[in-house]
Structures are given as structure tokens and as C-alpha cells.
Amino acid sequence: MEDDVVLSAPLFVNMDPEAARALIASMSPIEVSRGDVLFHEGERADRLFVITSGKIKLGRRSSDGRENLLSVQGPGEMFGELSLFDPGPRTATATVVADARLLELAHSALIAWLETNPTVALHLLKALAHRLRRTNEALADLVFSDIPGRVAKALLDLATRFGETVDEGIRVAHDLTQEELAQLVGASRETVNKALADFAARGWVRREGRAVVLLDVDRLERRAR
Ligand code: CMP
């Protein structure tokens, strides 16, 4: 099952299964716990990671100490590759949000693979283009959308990654604290809380600690537009 998840990562999609297995065998598995930092923004980089299970947040810190989350990634996703394609320091800090199993691959090993498997480069380009598309959308939302709209959008986005269908709707075990959720939306904890309390009062969501049940996806989608 976990193998299937790893094989769905952009690095392995459409790769000959034998080649994929060989590449996976050349990667080192690691286990990390909530709160562990895999690397810091600004550090020198020499490896990338594929997530087998768990969740990783990618965040940046402003000079006055405020934090912003660029993304929360889950099984099948990859991070730590930007500093390879655009050589330079890490563009974000990677921190474990939910205990995770990862596969590590040295940048030098990936370069060697790309030379012999050029189609893999196409999949990596596709993953990068997808990320740029999401980032553009997040940037436009910061300018054009109000905070409740951004909260609705963040919940729907987390649902596509971590949601499971339950009788009442979609349960999203995001594992984020209220502070982290606010950092993902790019607003204060108080304002994000107020939006969530309003959604709960309208019957659109139910909050359950570090999870939320989306009870009315249609309304949330309309609010996110
Ligand atoms: P790297 O710069 O090596 O280390 C930080 C990683 O965070 C980066 O590679 C990407 O994998 C990831 N990352 C950076 N910016 C974004 C973004 N806007 N959306 C999703 N992931 C990102």
C-alpha cells in the first residue's frame, strides 16, 4: 500500500516498474516525529524527500519572527527539489506535522537518474508547474479574497489531500494547530478562529481538535470563490 503511494510521486509516475524499484532501492528511508525539523530555510541543500506517510509543513519566517506556511504536504508528495533545479539555499523550512516516513534522495543521484531517464524530467516539470499554479492562486487570494474565503479554500484544499469520506461529509485530519492553520491562511489566529466559528454556527463544518468535518462542501466552495 505504502509502495503504491510512493510510486504515485511525480518522480516515479510512468517509470518502468523495474526502474522505479531500483530508484526506490537507492533512496534511504527515514522515520521522523512531529516537531522534527528536516532542514531550515537558507541552509545548503543536497537532498530531496518523498513522503511515504505522515505530513510535512513548508514554512518561511519573516525578519520579525512571524511565520507563513507555503504548503502542507502528504503521502506521494515531494519536497526539497527547488534548490536542485535553481541551485541555492533552501527556500523554506521543512517541519514534521504528523509522524512521517520519508525516502531521501541525494540531488547528485537524481541528476544521474535524469540523465538516463529523461521522461522523469517531464513529470518533475509538471509537478513544478502545478506548484506554480497553486502559488499564483494563493497570491491572488491574498490580494483579492477576504479571510473567510481563504479559510474555506484552505479547508477544501486540505480535504483533497487528507480528507476521508464519512457519513456526514468529509473528515479532514489536518493535524495543524490553530496557529498553524492561521499561518497557512496568512491571517491572525483570532480572525481565522472567528471564520471557523462562523462556519460551524452555519452548520458548514464541525471542529474536532486537529481535524475538521466538512458538512456542507457546496457552501464552502461558494464561499471560497
Ligand atoms: P527547497 O528550496 O530545496 O527546500 C524547501 C522546499 O519547499 C522547496 O525545495 C520545495 O520543495 C518546497 N516549496 C517551496 N515553495 C513552495 C510552494 N510555494 N509550494 C509548495 N512547496 C514549496
TrEMBL record:
Transmembrane residue ranges: none
One Gene Ontology cellular component: cytosol
Alphabetized GO MF terms: cAMP binding; DNA binding; DNA-binding transcription factor activity
GO-annotated biological processes: negative regulation of DNA-templated transcription; positive regulation of DNA-templated transcription
SMART domains registered for this protein in UniProt: cNMP, HTH_CRP
PROSITE patterns (alphabetical): CNMP_BINDING_2, CNMP_BINDING_3, HTH_CRP_2
Record Gene3D superfamilies: Jelly Rolls (2.60.120.10), Winged helix-like DNA-binding domain superfamily/Winged helix DNA-binding domain (1.10.10.10)
Name of one Pfam family that matches: cNMP_binding
Residue span(s) of domain HTH crp-type: 145-218
Keyword Iron among UniProt keywords: no
Cyclic nucleotide-binding domain boundaries: 11-105
Alphabetic keyword roster: Activator, cAMP, cAMP-binding, DNA-binding, Nucleotide-binding, Repressor, Transcription, Transcription regulation
PANTHER family tied to this protein: CRP FAMILY TRANSCRIPTIONAL REGULATORY PROTEIN, HTH-TYPE TRANSCRIPTIONAL REGULATOR ARCR
Name of this protein: CRP-like cAMP-activated global transcriptional regulator
Provenance organism: Cellulomonas cellasea DSM 20118
